[in-house]
Amino acid sequence: MAAMLEPIIALAEDDLRRWRACVRRFWLQRHAAPEATYPETEPGVDRIVRGPAATALRASYPGLVTVPTPRTDDEWQQAIDLTERLLVDVRAQSEEGWGVAGACFASDEGVRVRVDLVTRGLQGFKVFRVRHATAGSEADVDAVALWLYVMARNTLRVQSAGLLLIDTSFVYPGLGCYAGLYREMDLAPVLGTRPVGEWIVAMRQCERGAMPALPLGAPCGGPGASGRCEHLAQCGLPPAEPALADARTSLDIVGRELAAELRAEGYADLRGVPLHRLTAARHRRAARAVKHGQPVLDPGAAAALRTLPGPRRWLRFETIGFAVPPWPGTQPYQGLPFQWSCDLETAEGSPRHSGFLAGADGDPRRAFAASLVDAMDEEGPILAYNAGFERNRIRELALRFGDLGPALLALLPRVVDLFALLRDHYYHPAMAGSWSLRSVFQAVAPEVRAHEFEAPYRGRLVHSPLQAYAASLERELPPEEAERLREALRAHGRRHCEALRRLTAVLEAA
C-alpha cells in the first residue's frame, strides 16, 4: 500500500512576508499549527484609525464587487470560483467603475492570494494594492509581485500593477464623495526585481528542512516593538547580552554630535565627563543629575512661575488624523482635535476638572472650540507641555470658525509652555535624555500613570487614545463598549492634567 502523502499547506502573502524578514520566523510559523491559517484583514489595512475606507473605495469604483474573505479550504474554493466568474463576465466589466475587491487566486504550487483590487484596463486587468498611507513599502512590492505571479499561472493578462495611495491634497466635500482620494503609483519599474518563482521553491525547501539558523540582522523586535515576532519564545535564541550602555548615563543625552566628540576623547558615559567640558547649561545640569543620581532643579523655574497671576489652568489636547477624512472640509491625516482636558486651580485648593470629548455625531471641531472658549474664561495662565501643539490647534480653529476666532486667539498669549521651563531649569536621570511627555511623566509622576493607556475593545486592549477614539466611532460597536472606551479617554485626560500639576509643583520646589 502506498504511503499517504501529507497535504500541502497553502502558502500565502503572510508567509512570504515572514520568510523575507526571517527564514526562522517563517519556519516556526509553518510548523506551529497542523492547518493553514489565513489573514483576517480586509482589502487595505487595519480598520482602526482609517475612517470609512470601504465607502471611499466604492466612490472611486461604484461597480465594485467584494469577494468574501475565505477562512477554510472550502471557502477558498468558493472564493476562487466566484472570482473566476466575475473575471469572465465581460458585460459587467464594460460598466463604469467595475472592480473586484478581494479577488482570490491559487497556483499549482499551492500558493493562494487575495488581491486587494482588480479592475479592467484597455489591454488587460489592472491590479492594485490599497494602502491607506502616503507611500508604499518593500513588503507592498513583494505582495504585488506574488499576486502577479499567481495570476500569470492562471493565464490572466495583467496590463498594469501598482498601489493606490492616499492623496493628501484631497479635501472631502461630504455626502460620500471620495472620488480623488486615491492616487495611483505604478510598480512596473521594480516588480521585475522580485524572483517570486525562486522564492516559492526556497520557501518549500525551507519548511521541509530543519529549523534554519537565525539570519544576521533578523528584525526580532522586543517588548512593545512594532512588528515584534510572535515566535520569540520558541526561537531558542541565546540570552540577550547586557546592554553596553545605560541610557540614563549615556553620552547621547547631550546630543549625538557632542557625544561622538566625547567618545573620541575616551569618555564612556556622562558620569566621567568633567563639567567644564560641557558648555551648554542644560548639558551641565543633566551631567550633575546623572553623576549624583537625583534630579537637578534650578531656581529660575519657580521664579518664572511666580510671575504668572492666577487662577491657573492645566490643559491637554488630543487629536487624530484619519487616512480617509470622515467629515466635510477635512483632509487625509489632518490633525483633528477630539478631546480637551483641563484642571482649574481653585481657592479651596482642590482642582476642578472639566473637559470635552467628541461624540459620534459629526465633525466635533466647532463644539470643541466653543466649549474650550467657555471653560477658559478671560484670565489666568494656561499651562501645557510642548504648548506649540495646543497653540497651533487653537489657531486652526480660529481660522475655521470666524465668529469664535477673536476669543480663541485671545487664549494664545495666556498659554505657558512647561516644556520650555523644564528644559531650561530641570533634569531627572530617569528621563534618559528624552524630553517626550511620556518620559517626563514617567520620571516626575510615575504613580499617576499618565504615561500609560489601555482600554478594552472587542475582547482585547488598545494602548493608544487615538485608537480608542476611532474605535468608539464604529457604528456596529455596542453602546456599552463604546462608553467604556470613552470613559477610558476621560480618565486618561484626568491623569494627564494631574501629571501636569505634579510637574508644575516640581518646578516650583526650588
Automatic annotation (TrEMBL):
InterPro entries according to UniProt: DUF2779
Domain DUF2779 as annotated: residue spans: 314-436
Highest taxon in the source lineage: Bacteria
Protein name: DUF2779 domain-containing protein
